[in-house]
Amino acid sequence: MRRFVPALCLVAALVCAPGASPASGGHVIGVNGVRAIAPRGWHFTNEVFSTCVSPSQTMAITNARGLIPAGARLSKHVGLVLLLEVRHGGSKGFPPRRTFRPVPSSSAMGGCCDMPEGRGAEFVFRDHGRDFYAFLYARDPSVARAAAAILETLQVEKD
Asked: If exposure means fewest CB atoms within 10 Å of the residue's CB, which of 23, 60, 82, 152 is most exposed?
């Protein structure tokens, strides 16, 4: 019984927490041992945004309607969360995962390995022994906040 009560409290806290959650109209997206909760209007896409072998594309979540062409420049209201993972031995120098706070940027990122070009933020982190690059593409501040909220919900399984 003592183990059950803390577990029940954790479940209650997760369900009642503010932000993107299934209870607040969000939906769970999971692939390759990584899960995230995306708000309405955001969805998983099978589009390949990075042709790199390592790091390789693990997950892409966007609010775009329709396809995003390779190497495309993203429009103001389009957001994209692109997660790449370093495979096979990775780097031990990746910092532990922290809070994702996008800093407004006037310079474009991307373009390498056919990645889209656009303003946004790049995060490098390690979670459960796995090394990731997260690219958050968003020019509009409200889109950037939604994309950062998606990153905050990431749950990574051990490899």
From this structure: 23
Place of tokens 């940027």: 105
9 falls within a domain: no
CATH (domain of 55): 2.60.120
- As a whole number of angstroms, the distance between CA 146 and CA 39 comes to 7
- C-alpha triplet 112, 116, 120: angle, nearest 5°: 100
- The pLDDT tens digits along the chain (159 residues) read 555 444 433 333 333 344 445 556 789 999 999 999 999 999 999 999 888 888 899 999 999 998 887 767 788 899 999 999 998 765 678 888 888 776 656 566 766 777 887 888 888 999 999 999 999 998 899 999 999 999 999 999 987
